[in-house]
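Researcher: Dear colleague, please comment on this protein.
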Amino acid sequence: MDAFRLMSSSVSPSVKSAVSAGLEAAYRDDLPFATPYSGLMRILVIEDERTLAGFIEQSLRAEGHAVTVCHDGESGEAAALTGDYALVLLDLTLPGKDGLEVLGGIRARMPELPVIVLTARAAVEQRVEGLDRGANDYVTKPFSFEELLARVRAQLRSPGQRESSVLEAASIRIDLRTRRVQRDGHDVELTAREFELLAYLIRHPDQVLSREQILNAVWGFDFDPGTKVLEVYIGYLRRKLGAEDGSDPIETVRNVGYRLRVPRG
């Protein structure tokens, strides 16, 4: 396929095999990807092979999930601990910080967060070590994307990892499955990025969220923290969500960030 021929010759053979085995699954729309969940989820991918990470991201987005990708252990662990994710896909061989160290850091602070390990380390003792360190599942490269997506679905169906498909706060109602948004019963048309930003805010009603938290969650951990893109998109949401009485549901907290304000009483 053309996309496979575009991969750099520097990509490792194991990654090329993984991509080749599952490439078709990443692009076909007739495969049974979308098993119904209680809601669509935010997933973190920590993988230093950028080509493989890109295909994993595309496959997960095809199922409707919001995906953040990190390419080294330190930024990946930091994102996992601050980004409100439902699942982490974690490579073990990472620059900066080994995947097992990252797994240990996640388990120390977020023992309930599901982690699927992705690795070329195929020996039985290595798989056992990963599971003993707290991984929920273990996928060996090369792998089929269909199998990986099935394992993701299995983890997201686990008790405690379900989220209602409908979120409501501050007279705003969003449906994660249909991506329909309403304010005071009136439909609001949002772009994909506006929808992700609003979904993140509405998951944390009345909570002050820093610029860094929001940028990490919606645009990805590697996004330039000095950018003004967040302010631009907050402005878009304010204009589209404005009520007839002029009330603004999104409050600016000076020198900190933003809050979706929920009226009292």
Remarks:
- The domain at 2-156 is CATH 3.40.50.2300 (Rossmann fold).
